[in-house]
Automatic annotation (TrEMBL):
Database matches in Gene3D superfamilies: Dehydroquinase, class II
InterPro entries linked: DHquinase_II, DHquinase_II_CS, DHquinase_II_sf
Name the record gives this protein: 3-dehydroquinate dehydratase
NCBIfam families in UniProt: aroQ (TIGR01088), PRK05395.1-2 (NF003805), PRK05395.1-3 (NF003806), PRK05395.1-4 (NF003807)
The keyword Zinc is annotated on this UniProt entry: no
Length: 141
């Protein structure tokens, strides 16, 4: 029997407010509810979830995932556009990272077009709503 893949989903600032925050942009479903659906959909994959509004906590989680997880699905949210540190953390670890965004960041404000993560990511998925996470997980399978 093949070994179960271990994938870590990491969400950055304000994504704990999904379902309440700007539903016209982010939808009306909480991430916890959506994550339960992902766990059901990908029963053969060990999915773990972490969310923080703190840049340092996100960096530590990325570092700690190295050698433990087979992949990271990362939505660094606003830190995508500001955090050299998160980009450096991704460059420093061997675990592949897929950068995801719920909205199409390129159809939004100009500052959201810059990512300090993309250069170090295995791939980028933007603009498919919460389905962006499902597509990222499938990329590891």
């Amino acid at each position: 029997m093949a070994q179960e893949l271990k994938i870590l989903v990491i969400n950055g600032p304000n994504l704990n407010l999904l379902g309440k925050r700007e539903p016209d942009v982010y939808g009306n479903q909480s991430f916890e509810d959506y994550f339960s659906k992902l766990q059901f959909q990908f029963k053969e994959t060990e999915l773990s979830y972490f969310q923080s509004n703190s840049e340092g906590d996100l960096i530590t989680k990325i570092q700690d995932a190295d050698g433990v997880f087979d992949g990271i699905v990362l939505n660094a949210a606003a830190y995508t556009h500001t955090s050299v540190g998160i980009g450096d953390a991704i460059a420093a670890v061997s675990v592949p990272v897929i950068e995801v965004h719920i909205s199409n960041t390129f159809a939004r404000e100009a500052f959201r077009h810059q990512s300090y993560i993309s250069k170090h990511a295995k791939g980028i998925i933007v603009g498919f709503g919460l389905q962006s996470y499902e597509l990222a997980i499938k990329s590891f399978l």
